[in-house]
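Researcher: Sit down with what I've pasted below and flag anything odd:
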Amino acid sequence: MIRDDHMETVSPFDEAGIEATIREAAEAGTPIVVRGAGSRSGLGRPVQAAITLSTERLTGVTLLEPSELVVSAKAGTTVAEVEAELARVGQRLAFEPLDHRALYGTTAEPTVGGLVATNASGPRRVIAGAARDALIGVRLTTGRAETIRSGGRVMKNVTGYDLVKFACGSHGVLGVVTEATFKTLPIAETEATLVLEGLDDAHGVAALCAGMGTPFEVSGAAHLPALNGAPSRTCLRLENFESQVAYRAGQLAARLKGFGTASRLDAEASRTLWREIGAAASLLGAPERAVWRVSVAPTRGPGVVARLGPLAEAHIYDWSGGLIWVATSAEGDAGASTLRPIVREARGHATLMRAPDAVRAAVDVFEPEAPALARLTAGLRASFDPAGVLNLGRMHAR
């Protein structure tokens, strides 16, 4: 184990070191903030802690079974390394891991632990599911300083609590993910994206929904409103073998002709576009803006944005309109008092993805829980971290 007393950082080399650090902190009542490389450090509420527990030295792909479509890696392994190893055998993480660096202006490589902790899922989630759906096993060191293993190498392996799903998206409040196992899929031979220009939000989302309703397996569906004098773009991605993509693109364009004539982006241009869409921040304007992530039924999305009016300084739609990235002023409560009631009326929920520390400390970053759900959440956390030392306050004020 290496300690950096100046930075108050502990970087264990193994699970035993993580257990020892947590045990010592729990006995002393010392709060810990859990960190991988720090690429997503601006996500969630600010955490006041005496110790930073880093997983950066827990590295390496520990299992790669191409025939079983399974990969395992330690928490500090970069996502790029995992993707490179998978690409070597013609496979990939199907959920297209979301890279938050553009959103937060960070440069460190995202890690497997951070991916799991935040359930970071990109545009392909619309067809492939989220990181949580591909995650089939974890090793987790809890606030009791105990390392537990849940799941395995196949999808149907759960008895009792599904700890894999609890851990994914828990933002480190239940324990420190030390290793993760994912189901993988083959890499597509090629891809193409159909683009319809000039549609307003309502017609753009309607086109996305129409495309998703066809049998042509759309793997990305996003609407980008007009920006800097350029027309709006409604984008639908197709992936697979070259001959399949060519046929499906023609058929899909014909199905969507009521929305206009679609142009087609080739594989290289399509990949560039979807990296931009996945990053989101480059499409939302100035970095000093606050950024919200709104989840709502796709058909209700344009109505939500219309009701937000000038509060929404910029926005884009992903996941066929079911995900709306909304940029607002970071002043005051970053628009929370206006945005949240509108989203709630649409039966959606909102997460404040980016804002100054003072704003994130003062408002609910994650959707406020109903009292009954809040009690369940508190009970679950208490069972995993009875001393309450892990990422205290990251998700909800305590």
Observations:
- The chain is about 30% helix and 25% strand.
- Residues 248 and 314 are 32 Å apart (CA to CA).
